[in-house]
Design brief:
Blueprint lengths: L1 H13 L4 H16 L5 H11 L6 H14 L2 H13 L5 H17 L2 H18 L4 H12 L9 H10 L3 H30 L9 H26 L5 H19 L5 H34 L2 H12 L3 H18 L2 H18 L4 H15 L7 H10 L3 H8 L3 H13 L1 H12 L1
């Protein structure tokens, strides 16, 4: 019957049924076939799966990122990043990465980065004579920093599914996110050396000070969020509300770049995106419940542990599995389905749940740059007005720094857990 559950889910996906309906539908078929409990259990579990206070952070983080984009705040961030690192060889490539690091502290999603900053960055790099493929590749790679540096939407989902501290997950993501930025900037420097890229802007203290003043209030967003959470002023969920309120104040009253029509549009986009995500979470809740109650998680753990109990081999197998899954499944769906299956396995070999959360999210962020389901690839293809195939080829070389960072994050738990241990334990 477990095989029937998984097979029915895969068949529903193959015929084009949305993933949330496929999850709930396969679960309902399993309950009906087994006649284990009343069919209302499916509805009850789906509702209870989204009845969670931490999940309230989802719409607010989504809305905060959209407000930053709509209010033109991303342009201020880009100008500051240009003044800060544009004087390096291959300057706009470095600007791309630094801009994503800053924006990551506001939005928490790769899609918002690729669609917001990406539009500005690719146009600027084209105007300065950079190859479109290089511009698209570094934009795609840098956008994956968004869900690693706090705040992070996938970390919220993982924390709920794994019953893990979201505050610790946010703290654990800061150093790996900065490491991702460092490895990408190293690759940009290598490209600049090999291809003879020039400097795109002369360094000037006056320009740096001017752009810093213009971007000062947006730059305070991550300070507000991280400082508030670490000091205990508010929870991660309340931090999302604070981020949205702060973005509203900036857009409506400080810069006055956000119109009422724009606010309505952002609100409707937020409602739509949130509904999709929570529908997936609801479907995955009943699916995960059935997998857990039928002891599939124990069977998977026993199968892998019968082959090896070496933590590094188990983590290698899990990484390979997650990289493959990331090619075919959307991030939120993958987290909600796989956490109940994989977390018991890795904890049995001594892996910290917070450490594993970073491993899982980073794997799935790499999946955003791999076909056929990589969402960032579709966004960049539209933004750059090139084919999906060309976008995929452009992003492939930039998987190297991402995979290198994944290796460090996987096998150096002390690096990942340094801040959570210092701040929370």
């Amino acid at each position: 019957m477990t095989a029937f559950l998984l097979l029915s889910f895969l068949v529903l996906l193959a015929i084009g049924v949305p993933v949330a309906i496929a999850l709930g539908g396969a679960s309902l078929l399993h309950v009906m076939a087994e006649d284990l409990s009343p069919h209302l259990v499916v509805i009850h579990r789906m509702v209870s799966g989204v009845d969670s206070f931490p999940l309230l952070a989802i719409p607010f983080f989504i809305m905060a990122g959209s407000l930053m984009n709509s209010a033109g705040i991303t342009a201020r961030i880009y100008d500051f990043a240009l003044a800060l690192v544009g004087w390096l060889r291959g300057g706009l490539g470095h600007v791309n990465v630094v801009g994503s690091v800053i924006f990551a502290g506001m939005s928490g999603t790769a899609v918002a980065d690729a669609g917001g900053l990406g539009n500005i960055e690719i146009k600027a790099m084209r105007d300065h004579g950079y190859e479109v493929d290089f511009a698209v590749g570094i934009t795609g790679a840098s956008s994956t920093i968004g869900p690693i540096i706090p705040p992070s939407l996938p970390m919220v989902i993982y924390g709920v599914m794994a019953n893990c501290s979201i505050g610790q997950l946010f703290a654990a993501g800061l150093l790996p996110g900065l490491l991702m930025a460092a490895t990408m900037m190293a690759m940009v420097a290598w490209y600049a050396h090999v291809r003879g890229f020039r400097r795109d802007a002369a360094f000037a203290w006056a320009r740096l000070a001017f752009t810093f003043r213009r971007a000062f209030l947006p730059l305070m967003t991550p300070v507000l969020l991280i400082g508030g959470m670490t000091s205990g002023l508010f929870t991660p969920t309340e931090a999302a509300i604070a981020a949205t309120a702060y973005a509203l104040v900036l857009g409506l009253f400080v810069y006055r770049t956000l119109s009422l029509r724009g606010l309505v549009r952002v609100s409707m986009e937020t409602v739509e995106t949130t509904a999709i995500i929570l529908f997936i979470v609801a479907g995955a809740s009943i699916f995960g419940y059935i997998i857990t109650t039928t002891k599939v998680t124990d069977q998977v753990a026993d199968l892998v542990l019968s082959v090896t109990r070496e933590p590094w081999i188990v983590l290698l197998l899990v990484n390979i599995f997650l990289l493959v899954v990331g090619c075919f499944m959307e991030t939120i769906a993958a987290i909600t389905i796989l956490v109940p299956v994989l977390l018991p396995l890795v904890t049995q070999v001594g892996v910290d749940p917070v450490h594993f959360g970073l491993i899982m999210v980073l794997n799935l962020m790499i999946g955003l740059l791999t076909p056929p389901v990589g969402m960032v690839l579709y966004i960049l293809a539209r933004v750059a007005d090139i084919s999906f195939e060309r976008t995929t080829r452009a992003c492939l070389p930039f998987l190297v720094p991402l995979v290198a960072t994944l290796g460090i994050v996987t096998y150096w738990p002390g690096f990942v857990l340094l801040l959570p241990t210092y701040l929370y334990r």
